[in-house]
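Support request, please re-run this one:
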Amino acid sequence: DCAIIELDGNNELILFAADGIWHKLVEADPYFAGYCSVLVNVNDIVAKGGKPMAIVDVLGLSDQEKSDKIVAGIIDGCKKFGVACVGGHLHPDSPMLSISVAILGLVHKDHIIFSDTAKIGDSIIIAIDLDGMFHSKFKLAWDTTSHKSPEKVQEKFEAIYRIAEEKLATACKDISNPGSIGTLAMLLEASNVGGKIDVEKIPRPENINLLKWVKVYPGFGVILTSSKNNSKKCIKILEDHGISASIVGKVIQEKRLFIGSNNKYIPVFDFLKDHISGKP
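Re-run finished. Output below.
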């Protein structure tokens, strides 16, 4: 999710990430697209144990009214997530409306959590903020932030910072467009391992269909791997910060991801054949 830049003689690492927002979201809800352009980048930094510092944006302008809404969303997103927008670039005659954002963050070199370092035998933890609602136009967007204060939103970040500082996680990745299972698959593939999970143990709100829920892109959610000795500590920290978390399975040597429940499991990814993240 992030490039990591080491500075000579410095105990802090620079985190550098970027995301473009899906054109259908930009057209359907420009304000939310601007807001999400901040959210997705901040989550990339936080999942590494880092603190977001500043963003720049690249805005393609084809409709002034919609562009104003994108900018309003970016402004509110920066306030909500505690990050400054320090500049950017404008395409004033773009053939289509678009928004992309790049972000810088900082993390102490001893506190960084990578997304490709899960170890065989680790517990797999899925943690999601369940206090949310589905977006009216995008049925898989689980909004957990727009209705909360900046303090409540940023409280979730503190859970990851503490886990990072105490070195309790072996790997972490924020849940994004692939949903919880797809994101887990990316983490496992990059770590050159496999996994086996009980999907019924994934935290979810009552009365939401499991098949739909595993496809959801939450405002805040992470996949963590942790040693058996540290997994319960991770869950307690997450729950203390208002994040529902559960051990859903374990990391295995076989390079496949199995999902199921009641001792019935099927493989959904074979990492010897399926290439997801593109990591060699």
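The first helix runs from residue 23 to 28. DSSP finds seven helices and 15 strands in the chain.
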